[in-house]
């Protein structure tokens, strides 16, 4: 068995002077992804066998090297970088998962993403 909880590092993209994508009504990606990360953290914290950390929990810019160092310091088993991107479609939907592994690709990240998208619900933006 596993002698320690699964360690997950959530990385809300952008932050501080880097707003990321900006929507039609001036919605900034950095704010959207921070909200998503906080909701996801709350869901993960309810699980008994997982420990969750975040690279940022406020509107600050953190360089990529520092984000990676934070994950390494906590010995993260999973690093989830959250982005909202920009689309020209009036009604974009769905999610994307990109996985990088030194041990080969698995579908675990996609399964986690799909399950948590359903748990967050379609109206998370309005809360």
Keywords:
127 residues, 3 strands, N-acetylmuramoyl_amidase_3, 13% strand, 3 helices, Aminopeptidase, alpha/beta, 3-stranded parallel sheet
Question: What is the gyration radius calculated from CA atoms?
Answer: 15 Å
Our measurement of the CA-to-CA distance between the termini, rounded to an integer number of angstroms, reads 39 Å
Strand content: 5-15%
Residue stretches low in confidence (pLDDT < 50, at least 5 long) are: none
- Round the mean pLDDT to the nearest integer and report it: 84
User: Helices and strands, in N-to-C order?
Assistant: EHEHEH
Main pleated-sheet profile: 3 strands, parallel
The total count of strands amounts to 3
CATH homologous superfamily designation: Zn-dependent exopeptidases
Instruction: Assign the CATH class.
Output: Alpha Beta
Report on the architecture of this protein.
- By secondary structure, this protein is α/β, with parallel strands linked by helices.
- The protein has one domain: Zn-dependent exopeptidases (Aminopeptidase), CATH 3.40.630.
- It has a three-stranded parallel beta sheet with strand order 2-1-3, sandwiched between helices.
- Helix 1 links the parallel strand 1 and strand 2.
- The protein is globular, with a radius of gyration of 15 Å.
- Keywords: Hydrolase.
């Amino acid at each position: 068995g596993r002698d320690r909880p699964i360690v997950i590092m959530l990385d809300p993209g952008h932050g501080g002077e880097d707003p990321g994508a900006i929507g039609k009504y001036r919605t900034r990606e950095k704010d959207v992804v921070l909200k998503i990360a906080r909701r996801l953290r709350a869901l993960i914290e309810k699980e008994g066998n997982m420990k969750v950390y975040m690279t940022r929990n406020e509107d600050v810019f953190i360089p990529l090297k520092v984000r990676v160092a934070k994950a390494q310091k906590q010995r993260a088993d999973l690093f989830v970088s959250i982005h909202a991107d920009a689309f020209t479609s009036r009604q974009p939907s769905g999610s994307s998962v990109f996985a990088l592994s030194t041990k080969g690709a698995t579908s675990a990240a996609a399964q986690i993403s799909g399950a948590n998208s359903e748990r967050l619900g379609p109206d998370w933006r309005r809360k």
